[in-house]
Amino acid sequence: MFPPISTSKLSPEEIGVWLLLGGLLVFGLGYSVFDFIQRKRRRSQPIVNVPARVFAKREEVGGGNGISIHTSYYLTFELAADGSRRELAVDGPFYSRMREDETGYLILRGTECLDFVRVSQPVTEAPPPPTLEWVCDYCNAVVPHSQSKCPACGSIRRVTSPLPE
Q: Considering the domain 47-125 in this protein, what is its CATH number?
């Protein structure tokens, strides 16, 4: 496939370039394997449904000075069971539809926030089983929780209604 490389014909600069390329390849493969293991571990965790209140919202802007600017969004939830607080990273659309002091059920998988279902009154009782689907606000299609867009219309807007009694 490739002709044999004879080190006697390569200059020190060429050897350095080959070593650098090999190092980058090994690093890239190692990172890919590590990322795959982390995702598999995260997806194997159970989905839990916790009564909570949106305690605070926070944005963090990074980059600049010739680097592309990006914004990270965080929500702090106060859990009704023990009053503890958890800050979770969320995406922009999810962040924008949340308001401080809203109460409802926080649906989590490990440290990943899957959804927050609002209810009109504060919740303290045991939560209902977790919802594994969401309803598209545009076409009313039922979409699996693993998908962020509706396969029927491509919308990311979700119906926000209280849990059924």
A: 2.40.50.660
φ/ψ of residue 143, rounded to 5: -120, 135
Report CA-CA distances (Å) from 148 to 25, 74, 139, 156: 32, 18, 15, 6
C-beta separation of 129 from 50 below 8 A: no
Q: In this predicted model, which residue has the larger pLDDT, 120 or 58?
A: 58
Q: Is residue 88 scored above 80 in pLDDT?
A: yes
Percentage of the chain modeled with pLDDT above 90: 19
3-state SS, 84-132, equals: CEEEEEECHHHHHCCCCCCEEEEEEECCEEEEEEECCCCCCCCCCCCCC
DSSP three-state, residue 160: coil
The pTM of this model reads 0.56
3-state secondary structure of 133: strand
Choose the weakest-confidence range: 21-30, 55-64, 127-136.
127-136
Structural domain boundaries in the chain:
47-125
Instruction: Give the count of beta carbons closer than 10 Å to the beta carbon of residue 100.
Output: 11
